[in-house]
Amino acid sequence: MYGLLEYGNMLRDRVRTQAYRAAIDRHLRPDSVVLDLGAGTGAFALYAAVKGARKVYAVETSPLLDYGRREAERLGLGDRIEFFNGPAQDFEPELRADMLISDLRGALPFLGDAHAVLADAKQRLLTSDALLMPHQDRVFAAPVDDPAWYAREIEQPWLQNDLELPMPLLREAEGSLPRRPPPRGLTPCFPGQCFATLDYAAEVISLPTATLQWTAEQAQTIHCYLLWFDATIVPGIEMSAAPGAKAPLVYGRLVLPLLKPVQLAAGDRLSLRISVWPAAGDFAYTWTTTVLDAAGSQHQQLRQHSAHEAFLAARTSGVA
Ligand SMILES: C[S@@+](CC[C@H](N)C(=O)[O-])C[C@H]1O[C@@H](n2cnc3c(N)ncnc32)[C@H](O)[C@@H]1O
Predict the structure, then answer these.
(1) DSSP 8-class letter at 291
(2) By the 8 A CB rule, do 227 and 141 touch?
(3) 39 CA distance to ligand 1 centroid (A)?
(4) What is the CATH number of the domain that holds 60?
(5) Which of 70, 90, 124, 317 is 20 to 30 Å from the Cα of 257, by its Cα?
(6) Do the beta carbons of residue 24 and residue 101 sit within 8 Å?
(7) How many domains, in total, are found in the chain?
(8) Does 302 have pLDDT greater than 90?
(9) Does residue 117 line the site of ligand 1, with CB under 6 A?
């Protein structure tokens, strides 16, 4: 659940706001019917109405949508915007929309039930040829060599903590949870590679399983993978959360830690097999790291997943 400050931060992200604005400006027509799905405080819905859309639906679970309603009244837009405060799955509008404005992503475009919400909207709330914003997201991963981060974030809390009580089982479970990078960021030591392309217009938004490979030119130790996404809001209007981007996007990035640091010799190949799958109303990640030497012999393999908490919850509730 986002607060006003977070909704403010979404608008403060000028790259994101300008990209959505440019997409709306390019495609909005006086006869457009717009669905702002997950409208937050309704900023994009208000903008579409100000720009002359025939009808705008602003749909949002957060009660903070009420601020949008009040802004609409203040602007005299009340007759053209309809606000629905509740889950989109319960919304039954009079018209189908031919333009979708939506941003249901977190650090990556795998958050909660976003894909199901979008699928339901496409089936019930949108015309079959509706213009979708976003149009496509591409998700990237790159290995990172950062021993100081690894010691502080993964090792110390469980193995060298102030209780002087090592907890290796917890280190293994918590050490596989995806997390945000530190404020100073993490710098990949290899170029990012794309492992998922989410085409929102496709009938089914398929979840990725992919294998990425990097070859070491020199000896290197890998501690984690950094993940981020690039987006096409509509064809021709793009934004990127890649590390090193001039203006970092509000989404940030995600880190998948390694169970142990992996040593690469010059010429070794680092292979990452990564999958994203639905778990306990959200998404989980499986990632397997394999080191192969120049002759193709396997040196090391680490298999990890992020669903320790979901599995335990299922066991203790008797589901598994
Ligand atoms: C990342 S925010 C985007 C807010 C605003 N549209 C913007 O771009 O600034 C995503 C919003 O989607 C809302 N949301 C998520 N699932 C929803 C659902 N099933 N029905 C309605 N709103 C939903 C969340 O509460 C959140 O406010």
Answers:
(1) E
(2) yes
(3) 5
(4) 3.40.50.150
(5) 317
(6) yes
(7) 2
(8) yes
(9) yes
User: In the beta sheet, which residues pair with residue 137?
Assistant: 198, 231
**Which of 109, 133, 157 is where one domain is finished?**
133
Residue 44 Cα: closest atom of ligand 1: 6
Phi, psi of 227 (to 5 degrees): -120, 145
- Residue 245's pLDDT band (cuts 50, 70, 90): confident
User: What integer pLDDT is reported at residue 308 of this predicted model?
Assistant: 78
Q: Is 43 in the pocket of ligand 1 (CB under 6 A)?
A: yes
Ligand 1: which of 104, 133, 137, 239 to mutate, judged by most atoms within 8 Å of the beta carbon?
A: 104
Boundary of a domain, candidates 133, 153, 173: 133
Residue 311: pLDDT over 60: yes
Rounded to two decimals, what is the model's pTM? Answer: 0.95
Give the mutation target among 60, 92, 283 for probing the ligand 1 site: most ligand atoms within 8 A of CB.
60
59 lines ligand 1 (CB under 6 A): yes
Atom of ligand 1 nearest to the CA of 106: 1
For the chain, the 3-state helix, strand and coil shares in percent, each to the nearest 5, are 25, 35, 40
**Enclosing domain of residue 199:** 137-316
> Lowest-pLDDT range, 14-18, 64-68, 106-110, 312-316?
312-316
